[in-house]
Structure formats: C-alpha cells, structure tokens
Amino acid sequence: MNNRQACISIRNVSKSFGKHQVLYDITLDIKEGEIFGLLGPSGAGKTTLVKQLSGLDIPTSGENYVLQGKMPDLKLITRIGYMAQSDALYDDLTAKENLQFFASLYGIKRAKQSKRIKEVMELVQLSNDLSKLVSNYSGGMKRRLSLAIALLHEPEILILDEPTVGIDPVLRKNIWQAFYELKQQGKTLIVTTHVMDEAEKCDRLGLIRDGKLIAVGTPEELKRETNSISIEDAFLVYGGAH
Description:
Layout: E1 6-17, E2 20-31, E3 35-39, H1 46-53, E4 61-66, E5 69-70, H2 74-77, E6 80-83, H3 95-105, H4 110-123, H5 139-151, E7 157-161, H6 169-184, E8 188-193, H7 196-199, E9 204-209, E10 212-217, H8 219-226, H9 231-241
Parallel strand pairs: 3-8, 3-9, 6-7, 7-8
Antiparallel strand pairs: 1-2, 1-4, 4-5, 9-10
Helix pairs in contact: 3-4, 4-5, 8-9
C-alpha cells in the first residue's frame, strides 16, 4: 500500500457557508486502490468534503487534486462515480429506464448499455427488479440502485456518501463484498460513514470531528495509538484530545 501513489490530494482545504465554517484546513492523501473511510458523526463535514472531491462544490480556501488534476474539472468528473447521501432517482421511471438515462448522460454507447446495466444490477442484486417502477422500491433498494448508477461508467474512483444507510445487515455485507471486488479491480473507494463496524472494514480511515481531521491511519494503527479495543473508543480518545 505504501508505495502506491496518491490519486487524491487534499491541500489545506477550508470551507465556510457565510459565517459558518464547516471544514478547517484539511490536508490528506488518498492512495490508488484503497478503501478509504471518512468517519465522523452527522454534521462533521464529511459530505461537504466529498462533494468537493466529486466536483460538485469548491473550497473557500485550499485545493483538491483528483487524478493529478485540480477539481472541479469536467474531464475528470467522468472518471469519478459519485453516490450522494440522498438518492437522485426518477420515481416515475423503472429501474431500467433510470439506468438507461444515466448511461446516456455518461456517454455509454447504446450497444454497451445493456451489458453494463446487467453487470451493475447483478452486483447490487437487483437483477429481478429491473422493470419495476422506482416508486415501488424500498429505501434499501433505492440505495443499491444509486450504487449501480454510480458504477455504470466504470469509474476509477468511487465516492460513496453513507452508501449503506437503510440497508439491512445481510445486504450490507453483500455490498461490502462488492466494494472489495471493486478494490481488487484496482478502483479507489472513498466511503463516508458514522457506523463503527463499517469503519473497521476500510484500509485506512480519516476521523473527522467538527470540520477538523483529527487522525488518519489504518483501523489497527488508530486503535494501537490510543490503546483502544474499538474504533469507537479510539475516536473518543482523539476527539477528547482536541
């Protein structure tokens, strides 16, 4: 892992909305082919940070580099798959129609579309629900369809904001299995979460609290450095030290 180069570099990034500062001077490198977790409570600034990495927002100060290019960059955005916290789906269309719409947006040729749609729906285990209206999908199914859409154009980097919220434990396990498979293919995944057992599944973690990056390391390193038996305990130690 250590000899892999960084595919994302965050340099002294701060963000304010009016007088309200949300991120404070964050500097972080994320390496090619790792699952990097951003762990922190709701409102910590995780979503604000990943929106910048996906090109949907800009920092007030500092710079974000993705695949060696400064964000936001339209050419780079096509190499990123982004799954937002709220599902951006068309309820009055079927799952297949949603996928076809986004495939066209991504510029996937018609001949290749059906193959990719089949592959991503198998990955998220929704193959039998392709022709179902999205309005008839459960919350967990919508999350999985959003993941399928983020994967359609075979991006090099996947940015997933709370990807398993509302998904039952068995399916969550399956989705993490899909994440590992994507990692095996050389993809880089950034996953935001506030679920501690998910944090343990990441290669490395950035702990975020009140807009500040308070620690970075593998789950084992973070636990060892704080003499903790769980990531939750480690987070409390780092958070208390601040």
